[in-house]
């Protein structure tokens, strides 16, 4: 099985994160690496969604995954089973990744031969929304058990994402969750965002999400 | 109906938060106000748990609630319906409350006549764990849909809490969640923490939690 290592990320030295993020995007463009930043609350299903995404895309794209956590390596182990390149990033207690930290992660992962790099950010709806990682696209997961009021409480996160995946729709019957209300609240904050209901567990909706991601990568390559 | 107001919290002026927290605790002691700090991920059920707690305790304790959020007032509205004193705190994008911010909240709420003040912290498993609010006790909620691996990924939060409420146990049959694994992981991080399974929706387990809280308040008064 492919091995993975654990990288202890250091605090960034860049004072201007927006500039560092733009520089990283230029470098990724030059190297042909599409970087996706995946965010959510703890336990919304980032890793399971990633596994389903990888299974559907690994035949056509060389994928590399960065699993950022404060501690543990359970997520990198779960991704390792898919056979793609993976690295576990430890943030040393930090609640988000900025562009400098993402660059350390990409260097640790090794960008050579990678076409699609995915950063699974720290589980947190607040701080990661404030820091541009240098990603080409930002995606978040809102899971049904968290409730439909989250766009009201964490507006910045919903404002900066290109796609909002509404996960765990297989348990919709057991929760009070109004998908139309979420769509309306997201539309108000971020009219261009796409909302895609999925169940990472059953696979429902993942084809639509993967189709969106394929098109985003191809559009970026052509642009 | 009791009115509530929305207070825009300012960044703290105290450089030494631990000292500010100790000072706040002394002041609370002098005033006889027991401060509880309630933390969790977004959507783990803090507000619903609080409502169940208030319904069981408001006959015997004068309760005041501070609802901290980045935006919206949905939580303060939900607490308002219980008839207790409540204030909505807006953190201006900040991901946690420290002791200075908690003090602003308590002053906005008005401590006079309050025996039990409850701070519903920002939904976040990372940053709130790093800042002592001045609370007498810290409690967190882990909800079943988030998964049993959370103590591995967010060890600090599980280390600093006196009680871990495992919420949404009514949906245990629909999720892969090992309660014994959570107990073992918490015991390793924090042997003195009490783990109480609850369902804020059905009320299961809330009596045990409320009994613990009553005893904690009475112990504190006697000490």
Structure description:
- 2 copies of one chain form a homodimer.
- In chain A, helix 2 crosses helix 8.
- The longest helix of chain A has 17 residues, at 206-222.
- An 8-stranded parallel beta sheet of chain A has the order 1-4-3-5-2-6-7-8, sandwiched between helices.
- The first copy, chain A, is built from 8 helices and 8 strands.
- Chain A has 223 residues and is an alpha/beta fold.
- Chain A is globular, with a radius of gyration of 16 Å.
- Chain A binds chain B through residues 41-44, 69-72, 74, 93, 95, 122-127, 130, 143-147, 149-150, 152-156, 168, 170-171, 174-175, and chain B through 41-44, 69-72, 74-75, 93, 95, 122-127, 130, 143-147, 149-150, 152-156, 168, 171, 174-175.
Run of helices and strands of chain A: EHEHEHEHEEHHEHEH
Low-confidence stretches of chain A: none
| Number of DSSP strand runs of chain A | 8
Shape of chain A: globular
Strand content of chain A: 15-25%
Q: Which chains have the largest interface?
A: A-B, 35 and 35 residues
- Secondary-structure-based class of chain A equals alpha/beta
| Subunit arrangement of the protein | homodimer
Largest sheet of chain A: 8 strands, parallel
Query: Count of helical segments of chain A?
Result: 8
**Cα gyration radius of chain A (Å):** 16 Å
List the helices and strands and how they pair.
Two copies of one chain form a homodimer.
Chain A: E1 6-8, H1 17-31, E2 34-40, H2 46-57, E3 63-69, H3 74-80, E4 85-90, H4 99-109, E5 116-120, E6 137-143, H5 150-153, H6 155-160, E7 163-167, H7 179-189, E8 194-197, H8 206-222
Parallel strand pairs in A: 1-4, 2-5, 2-6, 3-4, 3-5, 6-7, 7-8
Helix pairs in contact in A: 2-8
């Amino acid at each position: 099985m492919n091995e993975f290592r654990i990288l202890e990320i250091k605090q960034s030295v860049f004072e201007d994160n927006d500039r560092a993020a733009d520089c990283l995007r230029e470098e990724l463009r030059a190297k042909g690496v599409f970087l996706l930043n995946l965010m959510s609350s703890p336990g919304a299903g980032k890793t399971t969604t990633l596994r389903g995404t990888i299974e559907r895309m690994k035949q056509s794209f060389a994928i590399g995954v960065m699993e950022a956590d404060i501690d543990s390596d359970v997520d990198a182990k779960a991704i390792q089973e898919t056979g793609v390149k993976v690295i576990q990033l430890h943030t040393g207690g930090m609640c988000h990744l900025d562009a400098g930290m993402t660059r350390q992660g990409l260097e640790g992962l090794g960008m050579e031969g990678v076409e699609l790099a995915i950063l699974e950010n720290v589980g947190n709806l607040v701080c990661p929304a404030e820091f541009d990682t240098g990603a080409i696209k930002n995606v978040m997961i809102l899971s049904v058990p968290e409730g439909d009021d989250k766009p009201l409480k964490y507006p910045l996160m919903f404002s900066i994402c290109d796609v909002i995946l509404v996960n765990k729709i297989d348990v919709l019957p057991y929760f009070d969750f109004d998908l139309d209300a979420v769509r309306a609240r997201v539309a108000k904050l971020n009219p261009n965002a796409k909302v895609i209901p999925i169940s990472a567990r059953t696979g429902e909706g993942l084809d639509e999400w993967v189709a969106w991601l394929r098109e985003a990568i191809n559009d970026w390559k052509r642009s």
